[in-house]
Amino acid sequence: MKQDSATPEKGTTLALLMERGPLDLNRILLLAINIADALDAIHREERFHGGLHPGIIALVQETWHVVLLENEGPRETVGYMGDGNLGYISPEQTGRMNRMVDYRTDFYSLGIVVYALLTGVPPFMTEDSAEMIHCHIAKRPNPPHAMNAPFLSSCWAHLCRSCLSPDADR
Predict the structure, then answer these.
(1) Does residue 27 sit within a domain?
(2) Position 6 in a domain
(3) Is the dihedral of CA 81, 54, 42, 157 positive or negative?
(4) Rounded to 5 degrees, what are φ and ψ at 157?
(5) What CATH number has the domain bearing residue 107?
(6) What is each CA distance from 88 to 26, 123, 127, 143, 153, in whole angstroms?
């Protein structure tokens, strides 16, 4: 993975930054921590975001801190899909799991974001909505090191596997 010394421009989203090419592991770790911190602030208010994806993660110039652009979801609900971005929803958000959507949905979506940062692609890629929902419910993604990131340690693979478990209790 190439080294990236550029700082994000004012108003840059994570999606735009990812289009420029891969980031080094230190930047990915910093971003993952900063996104988790932003989610923690929401969760402390007994709320969840419910719509996390790279297009709504704004980067603060030079500090690499993040601001989540969308409104947070309600305290608990069934089938809350945030902004409807199917590539980043949790299994509970599909409405087919018979489980309440809560703060754990953000961990699943964070896992997808980190996976995409590490490999350059989200874990599930399909244009078919029903197939995408099926992937989130029933499939396990390929480990990141099996994709475009053979240099990754098992710690990264474990982090992604834990966040991307279809069982919210794991």
Answers:
(1) yes
(2) no
(3) positive
(4) -60, -40
(5) 1.10.510.10
(6) 23, 9, 13, 17, 24
Look at residue 112 and tell me if it is in a domain: yes
**pLDDT tens figures, 101-119:** 888 899 999 999 999 999 8
> Is 9 inside a domain boundary?
no
Instruction: Give the span between the Cα atoms of 30 and 96, in whole angstroms.
Output: 34
Torsion angle of C-alpha atoms 146, 90, 116, 8, degrees rounded to 10: -160
Which of 7-16, 76-85, 129-138, 144-153 is modeled with the greatest confidence?
A: 129-138
Q: Report pLDDT for 99.
A: 78
In degrees and rounded to multiples of 5, residue 14 shows phi and psi of -60, -35
Which residue segment(s) compose the domain that 61 sits in? Answer: 14-71+85-163
Which has the minimum average pLDDT: 78-82, 155-159, 161-165? 78-82
Provide the domain count of the chain: 1
Instruction: Specify the pTM.
Output: 0.84
